[in-house]
């Protein structure tokens, strides 16, 4: 069943999305697509272009869940994913949330960081980490559900 993702731009330039489901119902993604989005986000960040903030409202059965990507880095990462796999699709939105969850995981998990090699100013992610991030179920708040295993 295809669920609609409504999108509009607010007067302040913020891109607003309304999603007719919860984050934990979004699909898994292909590891190669997640890797491509990782690379695209890095390229966009290095270009130094500003990206609009984004607000995503999920209409979960338990009540609305709001994510606000106002941080310039998060906005940049979301813009890179949007350019590759539209955030108005379930798959594009799943890629975006998984990419942001992966960044969060790398910031707080030594085990995840061990799956990342820094080389020449780039962060190279292992195939194991990308595979786990691509297939692990998302939680109701859009992070990885407990049990992300590499």
Order of helices and strands: EEHEEHHHEEH
Describe the strand arrangement of the main beta sheet, using strand numbers.
1-2-3-4
| Low-confidence runs | none
Terminal CA distance reads: 30 Å
Average pLDDT reading? 87
What multimeric state do the chains show?
single chain
Major beta sheet, specifics? Answer: 4 strands, mixed
Nearest-angstrom radius of gyration?
15 Å
From the helix content, strand content and strand pairing, which structural class follows?
A: alpha+beta
Q: How many helices in DSSP terms?
A: 5
What's the total number of strands? 6
Query: What level of helicity do the residues show?
Result: 40-55%
The coarse overall form would be globular
Assess the beta-strand content as a share of residues. Answer: 15-25%
Return the domain count: 1
Question: Could you explain how this protein is built, in words?
Answer:
It is a single chain. The chain is α+β, with helices and mostly antiparallel strands and 150 residues long. The protein has one domain. It has 5 helices and 6 strands; from the N terminus they run E-E-H-E-E-H-H-H-E-E-H. It has helices at 31-47, 72-84, 90-108, 110-113, 127-135, and strands at 5-9, 15-19, 54-60, 63-69, 116-119, 122-125. The strands form 2 sheets. It has a 4-stranded mixed beta sheet with strand order 1-2-3-4. It has a two-stranded antiparallel sheet with strand order 5-6. A hairpin with a 5-residue loop joins strand 1 (5-9) and strand 2. The radius of gyration is 15 Å and the shape is globular. 33% of the residues are buried. The mean pLDDT is 87.
């Amino acid at each position: 069943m295809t669920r609609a993702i409504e999108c509009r731009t607010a007067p302040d330039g913020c891109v607003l999305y309304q999603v007719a489901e919860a984050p934990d119902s979004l699909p898994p993604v292909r590891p190669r697509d997640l890797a491509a989005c990782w690379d695209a986000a890095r390229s966009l960040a290095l270009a130094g272009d500003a990206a609009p903030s984004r607000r995503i409202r999920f209409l979960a059965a338990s009540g609305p869940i709001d994510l606000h990507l106002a941080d310039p880095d998060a906005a940049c990462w979301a813009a890179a994913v949007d350019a590759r796999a539209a955030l108005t699709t379930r798959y594009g939105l799943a890629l975006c949330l998984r990419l942001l969850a992966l960044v969060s995981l790398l910031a707080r998990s030594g085990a995840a960081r061990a799956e990342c090699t820094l080389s020449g100013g780039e962060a190279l992610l292992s195939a194991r980490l990308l595979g786990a991030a691509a297939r692990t179920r998302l939680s109701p708040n859009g992070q990885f559900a407990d049990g992300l295993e590499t």
